[in-house]
Amino acid sequence: RCPYHSWFYGLDGALKQTPHLELDKSAFPLHEAQLETWNGFMFVRLADQSSAADTEPLTKTLAPITERIHRYELDTLVTAQTLRYSVNANWKVILENYNECYHCAGVHPELCKIVPAFRRNGGADLDWDKGIPHKDGANTFTASGVTQREPFPQLNRDEQERHKGELVYPNLMISLAMDHVAVFTLWPESEHSTRIDCDFLFHPDEVAKSTFDPEDAVSFWDLVNQQDWAICESVQRGMRSSKFEHGYYAPMEDYSLDIRNYIKRLMGEKLTKAPHND
Predict the structure, then answer these.
(1) What is 236-268 written as a DSSP string?
(2) Which of 228, 235, 234 is nearest to 85 (CA)?
(3) End-to-end CA distance of the chain
(4) Where would I find the beta strands (DSSP E) of the chain?
(5) Which of 18, 49, 78, 201 has the most beta carbons within 10 angstroms of its beta carbon?
(6) From residue 119, how far is each of 108, 110, 127 by CA, in Å?
(7) Average pLDDT over residues 13-20
């Protein structure tokens, strides 16, 4: 029911009732939206299929990611806790931050103690497909690098000992440890403001235990998150300077260029290989 003039619609979007009016109801349906699901997440496309710049089926688009993380069985996990943030930065700045670790040594000292590989070579040569190794004796993202929780049951040896990360354009970031998954959903609110929902997923068998406590993972992630949001806000302030024209992409930030290619493709612009200093 529309709260303004009390027009009533069916769940299929068809207009059913128009108080005090006689009109062709078939001419005023709700707008259609395409909906698909993947690993327990819902994806919505608001554009018409015929007019959308990117018409590739979701399953095909996400097939490489599905292959890399299928043993985590995301659709069987449950949300144990959610953190919500309001970040004064454009959503693309946040995605670029997630897509590189050149900043990690200077911004995330606690994280680098658990994952020393983030310090080496400015974060270059990280094998995200195989996963990023923790320090000796550590196997997850907590302040100590360990936890009482069991690994997800289907993981291979690398996945039990390493950390993986995936970016699903345009607004989903997934970080996978052996016992929990941190999922970030970005909701742009303006050109310089983004709301972020950070959901923590765990295996239902672990959540059902009387001793279950997600705080070791949640508190560590909250620390890392706050560090990232602060540096992204600093970048945003710099971009608002009257002197700002463009930044500089170092070679180890090549993945951060993807966001520009993604936006160009959706806007129908001709793709060109961007130089590192553009």
Answers:
(1) HHHHTSTT-------GGGGGGGHHHHHHHHHTT
(2) 228
(3) 50
(4) 8-9, 15-17, 34-38, 41-45, 78-87, 132-133, 162-168, 172-176, 180-190, 193-202
(5) 201
(6) 10, 11, 14
(7) 96
